[in-house]
Amino acid sequence: TTMTMTTPEPTAAPRATTTPEPTPASATTTPQASPMPTPVPEFGCSGCATCAAVVDNSAGQAVTDAECAPCAMGAQTWWPCNLEGLCRCSGATPAPTSAPTPTTTKPTPTPTHGPSPSPSPTPPSPTPPASAEVCSEEGPSCDFTPGEGISSWFTEELFNEMFPNICSSSCHGCSMLTYKCLIKATLMYPDFAQSGSEEDNKRELAAWLGEMSQETTGGGCGASTENSDGTCSCGSMWCDGHPGGGCSTWGLCFVEEAGGSYCSPSSTYPCVPGKEYKGRGPKQLSWNYNYGQFSEQFCGDKSILLENPQRVATNPTLAWASSIWFWFTGGACNPGETCKPSCHDVFLGTKPMCAGDVQANRKYGLGWVTNVINGGLECGGAGQGKCDYRVHSRVRFYKHFCGILDVSPLAEGWTEEENLFCNEQNNYVQAPPQVC
Question: Is 215 a catalytic residue?
């Protein structure tokens, strides 16, 4: 597992004409200045080893035991795990039906000793924040000069086309995950989508937003299966017929995970008693070491977010910046460890291909990005084959956004099988990172 205050003026994203079923009963993920721990739902699966479907659920959604099984111990964040009432601990009796609420969980296995080792050159540091306000509770205004950075080609109209449901009553991203604050955060990482190739820039943006959409999805993919021609299918989903792209229009729906402390013993980034390092922001930043190292590198002081982790869900600039920070770092990495490569480098092909990467059959592109983000659950032997529903959902978001940006999802020499999916790549548990 994977993020009202006075915030910058919400982006005027169009409201959904069709809201998803089920509609949340309350905005449990609405950012608060000091969120109290949210109890794990009685019939959720984040606290049990075996998870089963609630066939006769209040939402009227078709769900199976196989689809609910990965929700056990909070290992998965997407549908059906993020909607209370669809899955329950095996052996529990369903409670009286009521309107479900989202309970997003971060798909990161509990580490046994801090951040997993992971390879890449030292990523570029962000442009230093102009003032301490950037890392404050609410953050600064997200105003920028029109035409700066990627705003010269990625307009608010394109953002709204990608995320037409962000202001749906079922979602909680409207006032936090705004277009203006996205642009403001990317300006602090000037290497993002700013190469000499317009097509590469568009693909990188589509990849970043596609991966983040899967982390925060209000739609996702149910039980993905591989068709006889090798393509993947999500089966029948409640959002299939929604205008503008079906289920791919439901990215950036949730901002904050319902609950979870996510504290790993660390002398470098120690947990603060009473604080929760649960998933927040587009990347659903989680674990104390990620909060600490992001705070250290972006805010200039690791204690800011170790002591105030809730700010990643109350400060829109921090929310977006945490996602881009992960894109350029691959997550926290302690001194002496071999780090995972940056998503930026493995997507664009600028990371040196080490001998271990060749042996692990890693290929530049979206599949390798997914491997960096959540390969321990989705790629290689850990996933459910090529059409693992989480991987398929990431690919589907990416391709949908490429369509909106009018760019081919495949760079020269790429194939879907090798460069968008990750089932044939060893994950970093199977083949640890190397420096070369």
Answer: yes
